[in-house]
Amino acid sequence: MIEAESSVGILATDSSDRRFQDALSELFTGNGTIYLVSGYFTYQGYLSIRDDIVSFLERSRDNELIAIVGPASDQFSARIAHDLWSFDDHDQVQLYKQPKGLHAKLYLRDGPNPTCIVGSGNITQVAFEYNIELNVELTRSSIDHPDLRPFYEWLEDAVAASQPLRRRDILGPVQIGSSFVNWSNKARLLPLRNVALRVVPVLLLVVLLASVFRFV
Predict the structure, then answer these.
(1) Residue limits of the Phospholipase D-like domain (predicted)?
(2) Which structural domain, as residue segments, surrounds residue 87?
């Protein structure tokens, strides 16, 4: 782990001494509240850190996990929510939805030696093993350190602006509908010709694939 007050640590996929997936797993070795904000959160990505999450929650009932996700079918796997809820016996897990085109990637643990990871990496197996990602890791002595405080305040605002994720939000048709709304809103910001040539075919493909592979 990076020592407190050290320089910024660069995290890559598999071409550096410090991998993004390893740093994300290591967040759960400390105590406190962990915030996960990931524009795309797939089941395979979740499985890569599931044991770390379970150990973190079992280690202390004061440990909490707060996640903000995009509820659309192409952004979030319903299996993740069902699994987290199934072993959350002490109300330590809070899931929130942010349907307005969530694209942020921010991972933070408060408590002793708080750590923040921010960059391009989503919680997906593709980000862990294939994509060229660039993330930075900061560990400081206090969450009030000026390097960390802005990220923590952003998270507090993001949670306040989000809504609790409900079981009906992750029903297949509802998630596909969320995908359709997202892509429709994006299409409104593009010239009509771009929409016709690019967005419409992609939207139809996303809806088709989401209906087939919505549990992936």
Answers:
(1) 79-140
(2) 9-167
Q: Indicate if 156 and 179 belong to the same structural domain.
A: no
Within 8 A by CB and 6+ apart from 122, the residues are 38, 39, 40, 41, 42, 45, 105
Banded pLDDT at 1 (limits 50, 70, 90):
very low
What's the rounded Cα separation, in Å, for the pair 115 and 139? Answer: 4
Co-location of 128 and 199 in the same domain: no
Same domain membership, residue 19 and residue 106: yes
Place of tokens 């660039």: 134
Beta bridge partners of 106: 37, 118
Q: Do residues 141 and 202 both lie within one domain?
A: no
Percent of the chain's residues with pLDDT above 90:
64
pTM of the model: 0.83
Higher pLDDT, residue 62 or 3: 62
**Does some domain include residue 80?**
yes
